[in-house]
């Protein structure tokens, strides 16, 4: 393959396109979103095949802002569909071949996801959006055959998330933007000492789901920093900036997962390179001290209120999630069909309720059989990645590369990422990180 040179074309296009989205939000004039679509669609059609994925990575954190009207579907779905179509056309023109095992696991996954709701009385339309994003990563994997793409992809993803956060930050002083975002999402607030505080969520609808995007970005950026990739200073800046934004979400999940992230990273760094590990720990202490100096009082009080005011029982500490966990667990155990085959997306008694636990969500909708099929699909993706990158050993239990995976598993004890638009793209970054060896 031709060496991937430093090419910022897609980043420039994404930045200009994001300005168009902001203008749409500011003026509520859809012409700017039309211009955005024309620019991004042209970029996906004409850019290099391995760079076409850049635009999905960048704008996955902008999903809810990419709408002509608040109650319509996001244009991100259209962009994803176009990406798939362009990839298929590219493969036909270049006579590319599918990897048989990956194709088989993908088709099995798709067939199962479609079949279960139909047999349960649901409709195919309820699963099309869900399958679209998993189809995107199926095609993306086929063109990931250069190790250096990991550095590019995680920087693009993080930069998109960073800019979306900046837009939300600016909206607090730009009334038109703030009004648009308030209409777009239900803003979550906290009252502290008589003052109303808004929980930060970037351009997402929920601070907790915004936080998991932050955590995945930081954990992947840490891998970039460790391997001393091109753009190391940029990775450090983005990791620190996103880390601060994450604290502004006042998410209990974020605080707990972030502490796990730091501990896992420190252990992995010391285990692999003790000098780098010591530098990492001292850097944390230094940056943590600066953050505490400027934000300690406000952030500490807000988190204290969230933990203490919720109550000291399990329901309080989990913000009511434990009640939902019991509900879903009982529904799964008491119905053999749901336990084995799942209720199917859009079907079942609890289809309009969130479990706030990815494992229960997957088990409820997919059942044991469907969950195994899903995991098998994920394993074939990482195997295909490893083969593309000529990596024979692509998983070590305590390696730096495993940090994003652990963060996903820990954070989703209280989240339903499996059914979210961003999950497949996050999953690809995580699986890519497992196969990445620097370069």
Task: Give an overview in words.
Helix 2 packs parallel to helix 4 and helix 7 crosses helix 8. The chain is globular and about 55 Å long. Strands 1-2 form a two-stranded antiparallel sheet. It contains 18 helices and two strands. It has 439 residues and is an all-alpha fold.
- Number of helical runs? 18
Query: Major sheet: size, sense and barrel closure?
Result: 2 strands, antiparallel
Number of strands: 2
Q: What portion of the residues fall into strands of 2 or more residues?
A: under 5%
- Record the strand order, biggest sheet: 1-2
- How would the global form be characterised? globular
Radius of gyration: 21 Å
Helix and strand pattern: HHHHHHHHEEHHHHHHHHHH
The end-to-end distance, rounded to whole angstroms, is 15 Å
What's the structural blueprint in terms of helices and strands?
Blueprint (H helix, E strand, L loop, with lengths): L8 H19 L3 H16 L7 H6 L15 H19 L6 H20 L5 H18 L6 H23 L3 H10 L4 E4 L2 E4 L8 H20 L5 H17 L3 H21 L1 H36 L4 H4 L3 H14 L1 H6 L16 H31 L14 H9 L11 H13 L4
Antiparallel strand pairs: 1-2
Helix pairs in contact: 1-2, 1-7, 1-8, 2-4, 4-6, 5-6, 5-16, 6-18, 7-8, 7-9, 7-10, 9-10, 9-11, 9-17, 9-18, 11-12, 11-17, 14-16, 16-18
């Amino acid at each position: 393959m031709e060496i991937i040179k430093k090419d910022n074309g897609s980043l420039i296009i994404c930045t200009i396109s994001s300005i168009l989205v902001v203008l749409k939000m500011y003026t509520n004039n859809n012409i700017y979103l039309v211009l955005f679509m024309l620019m991004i669609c042209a970029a996906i059609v004409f850019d290099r095949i391995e760079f076409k994925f850049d635009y999905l990575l960048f704008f996955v954190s902008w999903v809810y802002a990419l709408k002509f009207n608040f109650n319509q579907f996001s244009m991100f779905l259209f962009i994803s569909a176009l990406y798939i179509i362009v990839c298929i056309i590219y493969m036909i023109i270049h006579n590319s071949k599918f990897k048989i095992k990956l194709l088989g696991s993908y088709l099995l996954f798709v067939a199962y996801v479609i079949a279960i709701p139909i047999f349960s009385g649901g409709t195919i339309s309820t699963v099309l959006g869900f399958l679209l994003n998993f189809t995107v990563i199926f095609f993306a994997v086929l063109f990931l055959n250069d190790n250096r793409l990991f550095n590019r992809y995680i920087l693009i993803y993080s930069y998109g998330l960073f800019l979306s956060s900046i837009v939300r930050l600016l909206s607090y002083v730009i009334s038109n933007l703030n009004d648009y975002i308030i209409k777009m999402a239900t803003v979550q607030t906290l009252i502290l000492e008589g003052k109303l505080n808004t929980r930060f969520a970037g351009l997402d609808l929920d601070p907790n789901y915004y936080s998991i995007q932050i955590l995945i970005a930081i954990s992947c950026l840490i891998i970039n920093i460790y391997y001393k990739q091109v753009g190391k200073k940029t990775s450090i800046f983005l990791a620190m900036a996103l880390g601060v934004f994450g604290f502004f979400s006042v998410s209990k999940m974020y605080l707990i997962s972030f502490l796990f992230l730091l501990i896992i990273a420190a252990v992995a760094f010391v285990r692999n390179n003790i000098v780098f590990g010591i530098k990492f720990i001292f850097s944390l202490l230094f940056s943590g001290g600066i953050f505490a100096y400027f934000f300690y009082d406000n952030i500490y009080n807000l988190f204290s209120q969230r933990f203490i005011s919720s109550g000291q029982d399990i329901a309080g500490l989990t913000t009511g999630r434990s009640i939902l966990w019991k509900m879903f667990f009982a529904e799964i155990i008491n119905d053999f069909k749901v336990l084995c085959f799942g209720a199917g997306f859009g079907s079942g008694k609890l289809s309009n309720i969130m479990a706030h636990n990815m494992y229960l969500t997957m088990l409820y909708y997919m059942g044991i059989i469907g969950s195994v099929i899903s995991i098998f699909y994920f394993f074939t993706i990482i195997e295909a990645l490893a083969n593309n990158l000529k990596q024979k050993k692509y998983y070590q239990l305590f390696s730096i590369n495993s940090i994003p995976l652990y963060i996903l598993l820990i954070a989703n004890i209280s989240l339903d990422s499996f059914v979210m638009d961003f999950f497949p793209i996050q999953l690809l970054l995580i699986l890519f990180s497992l196969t990445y060896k620097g370069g």
